[in-house]
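One example copied in:
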Amino acid sequence: MSLGRKATGNSKRQVLMKAIECPVQVTPRGKVKIPLVFLKQLPVNQPLRAIILVSEAEGDDDAAWAELAAQQFAAGYSKSDSIYDRV
């Protein structure tokens, strides 16, 4: 567990935030499971900010980005773009 405090916001209004670092797991249903000891430290009915850090398997990220780029390119391609195929 790691705790820290950081002031955020503009000079008129600063919000003090407490950082809590803990191990979490994603359930098969896609929910983030936070251990109870850490969950008890979280405020109830208040907005929270979260940063999720994921171990990166070498090469996995590159393949995912390449696939996404290809999908996005194909989605934006229209029949009128075929004129550029002949250049």
Observations:
- The first strand starts at residue 2 and ends at 9.
- Residues 60-76 form the longest helix (17 residues).
- Strands lie at 2-9, 14-21, 25-26, 32-33.
- The chain has one domain: 2-79.
